[in-house]
Amino acid sequence: MRLPLLTTATALTAGALLIGGCATAPETEAPTTARTSSPSVEPETPEPTPTTDPDTPLGWGPTAGELEDAQALVAGWTPEQLAGQVIVGRYHGTDPATVAAMVRDHHLAGMSVTSGNILDEAQVRATTAAISDAVAADGRDFPAVIGVDQEGGYVSHLRGIATEFPAFDAAGAAITADGPTGREVVRQAAYATGMEVRDLGFTWVFAPVADVTIGAADPTIGTRSPSEDPAVAAKATATAVRGYDAAAIVSTVKHFPGHGAATSDSHETLPVLDSTLEEIRSHDLPPFEAAIASHAPAVMMSHLDLTAIAPGVPASLAPEVYDLLRDDLGFEGVTITDSLGMGAVAASYKPAVAALNAGADLLLMPVDTVETHRVLTQAINDGDVTRERAEEAAARVVALQMWQGRTADASPVPADVSTLASEASAALGSAAY
User: What digits encode the pLDDT tens for the residues 289-315?
Assistant: First the structure.
């Protein structure tokens, strides 16, 4: 089965969205009675200010109109609502009613479902449905953020429920072995994965991994990386993004600006990466640049101490790293932190507040979801997080979820999705090995 053609338009430039009304008219000589014999001149009619068609797709999925609608919506929200809409929570246990109450009562954007929250397929479907219903019960008519780590290989939280795919290094191997044909196999694998997790009720997949591994010295990413070659990794990452987009699921390119060269594990500690900025640009950034050019909707920020950019501060909490992503790479979509419960940041002072102020739009899996909501609400009330920043983050998330809901409605999950996924997994394995 071939993928549907992708229709997302080329990204708008920031300048096209910010056409201003601040231009100063050229100075003209004041009229005088001594020049009454001069011929009269019709005043020039000012040219109309260009406007953006609300149906124009932005470079990360939503239309300009969806973003405007989202901005207008969140402008009327309370601090409690704003704080919730920028949190993707964690929870313990397997009871759908418990997670639904947390989402509804604290206005959460949604939840990350992990292997510890899963019993079987029926319970997964009940959980995702409960989260969706909780968002609707809270008066929000756009989909919840319901995410899962389903990369393929050993990072697959739906093991035993969804189809098992090879690790993502198979994508790089397939492209290396057979160019365009390999790319189509990779795209089909991403498409099938996206459709299968959508069928289970998810709206986000925390993939693809864009990290360029350094091989054996890399203890965290390894086979999760598509390649040790930045060019191959760029092709694999961009191709996967296009496949996920076609499946109408939000993909999450990770872990910016690249975790593959770190020699310690950010789940346990804050890795120090001494690469120069030029080394980061040449080794780590190409897959992210390619993904952004392919309209990546979301980018996950790493927990790395990048000594060349923001020494001593986790990248996920460092404004300079968000500036690199937005100003240098031109990304305008949703930024999401890696889990705030990881060892690299868990002991930081109010990491959720620091991340939001640094430029994060979504805060993933804080240690204590309910307490983080309270802290963020208080920070917005006190001005420690400006309302402008909170609204900016929440509006991006809402607009992206509007896109996800609209495109999912237009792209029903195939009835034979399990067969499709099984065939795509086998094809990827064969193409790579």
Answer: 999 999 999 999 999 999 999 999 999
Alpha-carbon span 110 to 99, nearest angstrom: 9
* Bridge partner residues of 5 (DSSP): none
Domain limits, the chain: 64-200+210-369+386-432
Per DSSP, the three-state class of 336 is strand
**CA 393 centroid distance within chain:** 12
Pairing of the two strands 145-148 and 110-112: parallel
CA distance 229 to 287: 10
Q: How far apart are the C-alpha atoms of 124 and 127, rounded to whole Å?
A: 5
| Beta carbons of 307 and 274 less than 8 angstroms apart | yes
**Contact present, 80 and 57 (Cβ < 8 Å):** no
| Burial bucket for residue 22 (CB in 10 Å: 0-12, 13-18, 19+) | exposed
Active site residue 267: yes
Specify the range with the lowest mean pLDDT, choosing from 24-38, 103-117, 399-413.
24-38
Active site residue 106: no
Return d(Cα 352, Cα 373) in angstroms, integer. 9
Do 112 and 88 touch, CB atoms closer than 8 A? yes
The pLDDT tens digits for 321-344 are 999 999 999 999 999 999 999 999
State the Cα–Cα distance between residues 178 and 239, nearest whole angstrom.
14
Q: What is the pLDDT of residues 145-176, one digit of tens each?
A: 999 999 999 999 999 999 999 999 999 999 99
What per-residue confidence (pLDDT) applies to 50?
52
Q: Which CATH superfamily is domain 64-200+210-369+386-432 in?
A: Glycoside hydrolase, family 3, N-terminal domain (3.20.20.300)
pTM: 0.88
Rounded to whole angstroms, how far apart are CA atoms 335 and 123?
30
Mean pLDDT value across the chain = 90
User: What's the confidence (pLDDT) of residue 347?
Assistant: 81
Catalytic-role residue among 338, 361, 373, 384: 338
Cα distances (angstroms) measured from residue 227 to each of 54, 89, 173, 185, 210: 39, 31, 8, 16, 9
The stretch 193-216 carries a mean pLDDT of 98
- Annotated catalytic residue, options 267, 274, 295, 368: 267
Task: For 55-91, write each residue's pLDDT tens digit.
Answer: 999 999 999 999 999 999 999 999 999 999 999 999 9
Residue 252 has phi, psi (to 5 degrees) of -135, 100
Cα separation, 56 vs 9, whole angstroms = 8
